[in-house]
Amino acid sequence: MLPALLPLAREPFTAPTDRDMLPSERREFVRTHRTCVFGYRRRNDGPAMSVVYYIPTDTDELLVSTMAGRGKQRIVERDGKVSLCVLDERWPFSYLQVYADATIDRDRELAVEVMMAVAGRMSGQALPDEARPAVQDMCERENRVVIRCRPYSSYATPPRHLHRNDQVEQLSHWVSGVVGWDAADPG
């Protein structure tokens, strides 16, 4: 059975600028954004990173499409640990680091659904059903697979920005921490 893919949010969650995000807000941030830096460990060099669109599901999985045989697919099969640095596309810029266990799903129907959803996120509007045959052909031709990422923790960074140079003395930062994905909000 295919997971229920969440639609593109009309309005992405805005991170608070005066405090750390609550666990529920971190999950909402991830559910309502669309791009991330996908990172994974490499044997001999620093981490590999690439900007990708991701699709959240109703069970909090984050789905990423890739071509079979690419580094992302090979590493997930070898290691199974990935990071997704979810990006806010608005200024002041914020991001949320998500740590996840990942597996490869070769279900072609899921690959087509994810690619349809990715195209909708790229253009800002859902693809019409008439586009499905072309997406199916592309998934077949490119041997597309889906990386299923199951978050287990996150790290938030608040948006801090100077709007004028005379605000420099007012600029402050605070320490965030890694929070379990299913953590409850305090209090």
Essential attributes:
eight-stranded antiparallel β-sheet, Pyridoxamine 5'-phosphate oxidase N-terminal domain-containing protein, alpha+beta, Split_barrel_FMN-bd, Pyridox_Oxase_N, Pnp Oxidase, Chain A, 187 residues, 8 strands
Describe the structure.
- The longest helix is centred in the middle third of the chain and has 16 residues.
- The protein contains 4 helices and 8 strands; from the N terminus they run H-E-E-E-E-H-E-E-H-H-E-E.
- The protein has a single domain, classed as Pnp Oxidase, Chain A, CATH 2.30.110.10.
- It is α+β, with helices and mostly antiparallel strands.
- Strand 5 and strand 6 form a beta hairpin.
- Helix 3 crosses helix 4.
- The chain starts with 22 loop residues before the first helix and ends in a 7-residue tail after the last strand.
